[in-house]
DNA sequence: CCAGTAACTTGACACAGTGTCAATTGACAC
DNA sequence: GTGTCAATTGACACTGTGTCAAGTTACTGG
């Protein structure tokens, strides 16, 4: 079979990409580094991915599948109240970020030179926003959305709160554990978005 | 006097840098673009700044002076209560970000290739953190710091809340006005950090 | 077993951007 | 007028991305 070897190499490149980005926090990883880690020549990478950003985008998609993003989202989707949904969504995302951090950071930094990377990152963040919207709308449906918010503005604010740079600041810079991060963000979100009533 | 022309050119480069970065949101601005905008040759820029990151760092310092960052900080420093200090600091910083956004973003993106840029940005953010700490300590001194926080964790959280990417998300991506941003961040901060008592 | 095909290798090169160097020009100061 | 220093010009080294062409290896199907 011809495709098995193709897929194999492709997968090896993706695994190597993720490994390198994870190890170097997404900074300063070159195509030649990834090729070396994959055990193939630099040029051969281009037989599978058109460009660096193409590879980065594919790596994020691959990671989402590998980490079973849909499976992990199931608990929050099954929540029976708005508050529960909000809590479980933060729980999911807060524990997910550390696993995608390297790739996310690389995509974030590639925005400088590369328009395609910027678009791809925005797309990935739009998906995360859907989860935020669902949680806020669940709150709104329960009449437990704190006063002063519209569903749109509350979604904006929750989405922003959960952005990767915030996780980065609190854990990498301030030395918080992921558990601390999750707990505090939950507390801030509850105080900000959930009506006391 | 010989130094007047030197300073003049240096200043022209800094103004051109800020102008270009502002106009292009900090993305894809090259040394040759800055030189062109300054009306000098690309190589001449290196007579005044050792490297691109050196120029970016100098531009942020120059901007801080030009925008009179100390003068703008005076109101929050003169606050007579912790709550007032918190509010006025958010007011200051929230209105300051849009003016430094281009340069800030460029420095942020330069982190990829450049270690010096990363260090410089962290230094600038450390300065912003001092303002956060002062506000939190003022709250703590008034016994109005919300329960569940230590001064350290509250400073971490407030500092993170005020980071540039959050302003970027809410204004650039979500379409909020700066006034909206300032008001909502104030509300979130008050609900999160100020004791109801 | 042999022919063909597809992945991969190697070496070369184009291109963009940063940073350096040397020789030259031009202005201003003493 | 002569020296000094900013700035110019042209050339070049270096890094990283992306492309191309020619050759090699390995598997596949007749």
Report on the structure:
The structure is a homodimer of 197-residue chains. With 197 residues, chain A is mostly helical. Chain A has 2 domains: 62 residues, Arc Repressor Mutant, subunit A (Orthogonal Bundle); 126 residues, Tetracycline Repressor, domain 2 (Orthogonal Bundle). Chain A is built from 10 helices and no strands. The first copy, chain A, starts with a helix and ends with a helix. Chains A and B meet through helix 8, helix 9 and helix 10 of A and helix 8, helix 9 and helix 10 of B. The first copy, chain A, binds a DNA duplex (30 and 30 nucleotides) through helix 1 and helix 3.
Topology overview:
The structure is a homodimer.
Chain A: H1 3-23, H2 31-38, H3 42-45, H4 52-66, H5 69-77, H6 82-110, H7 115-141, H8 151-161, H9 164-173, H10 178-193
Helix pairs in contact in A: 1-2, 1-4, 1-6, 4-6, 4-7, 5-6, 6-7, 6-10, 7-8
The first copy, chain A, binds a DNA duplex (30 and 30 nucleotides) through helix 1 and helix 3.
Here the CATH topology of the largest domain in chain A equals Tetracycline Repressor, domain 2
The separation of the N and C termini of chain A measures 63 Å
Assembly annotation: homodimer
Please identify, by name, the CATH architecture of the largest domain in chain A. Answer: Orthogonal Bundle
N-to-C SSE series of chain A? HHHHHHHHHH
Return Rg of chain A in Å. 19 Å
Strand content of chain A: under 5%
Describe the main β-sheet of chain A briefly.
none
The overall pLDDT average of chain A reads 95
Quickly give the structural class of chain A. Answer: mainly alpha
Given the C-alpha coordinates, what overall shape of chain A results? elongated
Number of strands of chain A: 0
Which CATH class of the largest domain in chain A is shown? Mainly Alpha
Uncertain segments of chain A are none
